[in-house]
Prior knowledge:
By secondary structure, the protein is α/β, with parallel strands linked by helices.
Amino acid sequence: MRTVSLLLIALVFTACHADERADTISGYAINGPLNGATVEVLGARGLLASATTDADGRFSVDIPFQPPYRLRVSGGTLDGMPYEGVLEASCETRDCNVTPWTTLVVRPMDEHGFNEGDAVALLALAVGFDYDPFTHELLTGEPVPAHAFELNVVRASLNYGAGVEDWVDDVITWLTGEDCRNPGNLGIPPERGCGGSQPDTPFDDVPPDEEAAQGPPPDEEPAHSAPTDRINWARVYQVASPDEADVRVALVGDRSMADLLVHRVSSPGMAIRDALWYITHNPEEATVRVHFGPVGTSQLKIHFVNSYGEAGWVRPHPLRGGF
């Protein structure tokens, strides 16, 4: 009987502390490789563990808790010079790198309540690629294409870490459309417009000549006529009458029927794509007025989705390219 009791106590103790079993997190701290930098692993209980990077920027640390974590890197040297910046990363796995890019991803998480996946997707939509340019060559052996991201320009502007915060500020300002000027230090090609928009770029899935040639099906009239001016979807206001609307919209339950998959955002600054809508209750704040009605009289069919990664155009449409 005593043996059974002890076994039960042991099982209860193990279950209660299952989330505190040891785990190992590893990765790189890269601006270029940061040597001798301090890596702090933070969680809901504060500082969980710390480690120091080697000459390649590599670190590995045992911690008594499971992810997610927030990693913070400071100090050390870059090319023999003291590193003056602070880098951060949100980590939901055991493999986690910390770079200026991950520091950029953290900003909308902290300021707008994004989860990590949505923050990464938002940034990828804007810049046109979905990898961290600071670790891309290290992990793949392939350099970052200069037409996609000017890594050397950015590293120079980061100035051994002293310019990290300013660079993140500038990219976020460009990303949200608060200031559409590209000051030249972002690393993002100037042909990508405000927030990465490219209003004159043809549909990704249909070549321009093919798209023009498609037109309506034979012996069939177009389902609707669309405004010739581009629609700025940033701040959407719902009106009561179709006569008041800039666009007549139908909300469809089947996403396969939608022209556009829409994700609602929490602030006007985050509404930087046709598919990212900030719904306002102030008509004076609105940039487009929509009326929700039946499919038969609509100019656009939409379906609401839960994440940035899902949002976007399903098919070519005359209203595409509002920004």
